[in-house]
């Protein structure tokens, strides 16, 4: 009898529907499989598959193990367990290709970890003690390093749908949080679920998330309500008025001493809230904190793909006035001291195209004319760029915006 069946379904896309379709294809293959173990061809490496075929790994597997990881990569699952998990799976991910990382058991005793000897790969270009994962593309390694920790941190908190009509002010925790995370969305149903999941993965729980739906005509409101957590509050606009006006409305509801912006197609690293708020705690003269950010490009087939690390700020001892913003590149991430933010009047409260495109640069330039900026030297935000976005299509309007200020 063959030791395992290999699933040949390939992940495609980043939308909620595409991930669900991929789940359904895997589930169908699992139901037709005859072996006791199932391997994914899209996540495991060719060297793993060749080695596992020839190695008597079955004699060492504990009875309670349902998942086998080789070199830290989940490669095999017990068929019955995988079938049951797929039948119930309904989570939010940045792309379909991360589904199998979300199928790791919560119980560490159910995971059997193996390391492929370097000698086993000698015929495949692996030398010395070099780990097989070093043969993975660099972008794929960064993908896993940035995304798998968020998946692991939130697997203990299964989501539950709830009725939007039940979302009231009384459902929000009464204790004032340190940080208010503000998210303005318009037609972001395919990405904002993962953004919210990154908030739930924070190492600090001293936050509230206030989501403003700016008259979306897709299922953005449904996505906002997907995670049932008393720290999440949802506001609605009946007419689309632009991000600046929505952010000012969210600011009115915010109770934290710090304000953190999060776009509905980006996500936070697990320590973002803790490290940025600590930086402002330790620098009372600063009105704003920022950090490094991960730069991702959205692709149609693979979803977000890692491109590199970017620092959009000067060293922390330097101020940034409006003259520093000579290009249309905002500071990312942006955590404000709430008192400083309100002192400069919040966002540019206008509905024209400039109020929808350069509202972030306008606000930070005004605020940093009066306050210092502190920089945390860590990647705390992940920014996804895609060519069809309004910000990417409107860069040539920046000179006109400068003249209009």
Please give a structural write-up:
With 405 residues, the protein is an alpha/beta fold. It has 2 domains: 132 residues, no CATH class; 241 residues, Spore Coat Polysaccharide Biosynthesis Protein SpsA, Chain A, CATH 3.90.550.10. Helix 1 packs antiparallel against helix 3. About 10% of the residues have low confidence. This is Glycosyl transferase family 2. Keywords: Transferase.
Average pLDDT taken over every residue: 84
Shape: elongated
Structural class: alpha/beta
Unreliable sequence segments: 122-130, 158-173, 315-328
CATH fold description of the largest domain: Spore Coat Polysaccharide Biosynthesis Protein SpsA, Chain A
Task: Summarize this structure as a short list of keywords or feature phrases.
alpha/beta; 9-stranded mixed sheet; 13 helices; 22% strand; Glycosyltransf_2; Glycosyl transferase family 2
Brief rundown of the structure:
The protein has about 400 residues and is of the alpha/beta class. It is built from 13 helices and 14 strands. It has helices at about 15-30, 45-55, 80-90, 140-155, 190-200, 220-225, 245-255, 270-280, 340-345, 355, 360-365, 390-395, 400-405, and strands spanning about 5, 35-40, 65-70, 75-80, 110-115, 180-185, 205-215, 230-235, 260, 265-270, 285-300, 305-310, 335, 370-385.
């Amino acid at each position: 009898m063959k030791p395992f069946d290999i699933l040949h379904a390939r992940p495609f896309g980043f939308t909620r529907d595409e991930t669900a379709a991929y789940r359904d294809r895997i589930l169908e293959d699992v139901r037709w499989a005859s072996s006791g173990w199932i391997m994914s061809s899209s996540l495991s490496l060719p060297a793993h598959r060749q080695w596992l075929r020839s190695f008597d790994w079955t004699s060492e597997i504990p009875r309670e193990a349902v998942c086998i990881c080789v070199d830290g990569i989940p490669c095999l699952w017990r068929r019955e367990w995988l079938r049951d998990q797929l039948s119930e799976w309904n989570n939010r991910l940045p792309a379909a290709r991360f589904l199998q990382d979300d199928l790791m058991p919560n119980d560490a005793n159910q995971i059997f970890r193996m390391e492929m000897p370097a000698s086993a790969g000698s015929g495949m270009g692996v030398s010395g003690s070099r780990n097989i994962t070093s043969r993975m593309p660099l972008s794929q390694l960064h993908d896993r390093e940035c995304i798998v920790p968020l998946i692991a941190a939130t697997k203990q908190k299964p989501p539950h749908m709830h009725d939007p009509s039940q979302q009231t002010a009384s459902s929000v925790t009464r204790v004032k949080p340190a940080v208010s995370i503000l998210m303005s969305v318009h037609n972001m149903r395919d990405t904002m679920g993962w953004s919210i999941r990154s908030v739930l993965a924070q190492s600090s729980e001293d936050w509230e998330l206030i989501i403003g739906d700016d008259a979306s005509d897709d299922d953005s409101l449904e996505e906002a309500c997907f995670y049932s957590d008393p720290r999440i509050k949802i506001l609605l606009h009946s007419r689309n008025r632009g991000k600046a006006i929505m952010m000012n409305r969210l600011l009115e509801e915010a109770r934290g001493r710090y304000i953190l912006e999060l776009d509905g197609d980006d996500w936070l690293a697990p320590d973002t809230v803790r490290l940025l708020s600590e930086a402002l705690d330790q620098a009372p003269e600063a009105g704003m904190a920022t950090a490094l950010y991960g730069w991702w490009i959205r692709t149609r087939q693979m979803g977000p793909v890692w491109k590199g690390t970017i620092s959009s700020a000067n060293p922390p001892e330097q101020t940034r006035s409006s003259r520093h913003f000579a290009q249309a590149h905002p500071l990312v991430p942006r955590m404000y001291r709430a008192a400083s933010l309100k002192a400069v009047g919040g966002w540019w409260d206008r509905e024209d195209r400039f109020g929808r495109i350069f509202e972030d640069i306008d606000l930070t330039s005004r605020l940093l004319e009066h306050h210092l900026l502190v920089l945390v030297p860590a990647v705390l935000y992940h920014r996804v760029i895609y060519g069809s976005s309004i910000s990417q299509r409107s860069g040539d309007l920046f000179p006109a915006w400068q003249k209009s200020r």
